[in-house]
Design a protein that fits this description.
By secondary structure, the chain is of the alpha+beta class. The protein has a single domain (54-294), classed as L-fuculose-1-phosphate Aldolase. The chain is 37% helix and 12% strand. The chain has eight helices and nine strands. A seven-stranded mixed beta sheet has the order 5-4-3-6-9-8-7, with helices on both faces. It has a two-stranded antiparallel ribbon with strand order 1-2. A hairpin with a 3-residue loop joins strand 8 and strand 9 (220-225). Helix 2 packs across helix 8, helix 4 crosses helix 6 and helix 6 crosses helix 8 (276-293). The longest helix has 25 residues, at 228-252. The radius of gyration is 19 Å and the shape is globular. The chain starts with 12 loop residues before the first strand and ends in a 7-residue tail after the last helix. GO terms for molecular function: actin filament binding. InterPro entries: Aldolase-II_Adducin_sf, Aldolase_II/adducin_N, Aldolase_II/adducin_N_sf. This is Class II aldolase/adducin domain protein.
């Protein structure tokens, strides 16, 4: 277990006297614009931490992946052996970490993570367990197409699956959905279970160069992030948006008029929230709760 993360983290506030290495995100206007500190400006929000030791970063990645899986388990994103998350390894960039095949998300610990190479084969350095092959084809193609992305999350959530049947994007129906404005794409095809590289490549192409989330027609949702924390928050945000869209469409079908947020307001809201540091921070309350609820087991 990492000795630095055995207790609940307090990631929200730092003082200017702290070392520069811990002050990531202090110059991010989006992150610093969402909270108010002291009059002198010495209190700043923490964003994504940096690491001088790649081994420590690797352990941090596995701990946060495990917490995300347990969070997904709490949200009901488990569907048999489906669902997977990958994060690019900080030491060997063409390798990445994935969850073991057929292990319930709610039981996963940091030590359960599997390290795979660029061809999806399990290698030394992590848990010696099999992975989901469909997950490899989806994730490897996204990682290949988007070197800016460190983490990819995919699951068959109920509301995501339901809305995906329409093969349509979601509308900006509420303030929270504006977190995703301009960052959503739709894969409006379905080639069956992704057991071939071509299907993974088609999903990566649909995601494009700018989107951070994608609705996979007749399939589910996929999200990306600079951190696994960001990918988790965006996945949850998209699934909630799909739920909202379904509820609103049902009400509108019965004669109620829906109001969609205008593009300029949606863009304004997006500009106020879209930041890798901010979306990382959005997940930290859940991370802390998972650590507390598991009594630190998730970090082992």
């Amino acid at each position: 277990m990492s000795t630095t993360l055995t207790t609940v983290q307090q990631p929200t506030v730092l003082r200017s006297s702290e070392p520069a290495s811990s002050r990531n995100g202090e110059n991010d206007p989006v992150l610093q614009g969402i909270a108010r500190g002291d009059r002198n400006g010495t209190l700043k929000l923490r964003g994504i931490p940096s690491f001088s030791d790649p081994v420590a970063k690797r352990q941090w990645i596995r701990e946060h992946m495990a917490a995300v899986f347990r969070y997904f388990g709490k949200q009901g994103y488990v569907e048999g052996t489906s669902g997977h998350i990958s994060v690019r390894d900080p030491i060997i960039p063409d390798h990445f970490w994935m969850n073991p095949f057929a292990m319930h998300f709610s039981l996963i610990k940091a030590s359960d993570m599997v390290l795979v190479d660029s061809q999806g084969y399990v290698v030394e350095g992590g848990n010696q367990a099999m992975i989901n092959e469909a997950g490899f084809w989806i994730h490897s193609e996204v990682h290949h197409a988007r070197p800016d992305i460190m983490a990819v999350a995919h699951a068959h959530s109920q509301y995501g699956r339901a809305w995906s049947a329409f093969g349509k994007p979601i509308e900006m129906l509420d303030q929270d959905t504006c977190n995703l404005y301009g960052k959503i794409s739709v894969y409006d095809d379905h080639g069956g279970v992704a057991l071939a590289q071509e299907e993974g490549r088609a999903i990566a192409n649909a995601l494009g160069k700018e989107s951070m989330v994608c609705i996979l027609q007749n399939h589910g949702l996929i999200s990306c992030g600079t951190t696994v924390d960001e990918a988790a928050f965006l996945f949850y945000d998209l699934d909630r948006a799909c739920h909202t869209q379904l509820l609103v469409e049902a009400a509108a079908a019965n004669g109620l008029e829906k109001k969609v947020i205008p593009h300029n307001i949606a863009q304004y809201s997006a500009n106020s929230m879209q930041s890798a540091h901010n979306f990382y921070n959005e997940f930290q309350p859940e991370f802390n709760l998972i650590v507390a609820e598991s009594k630190g087991e998730v970090l082992q």
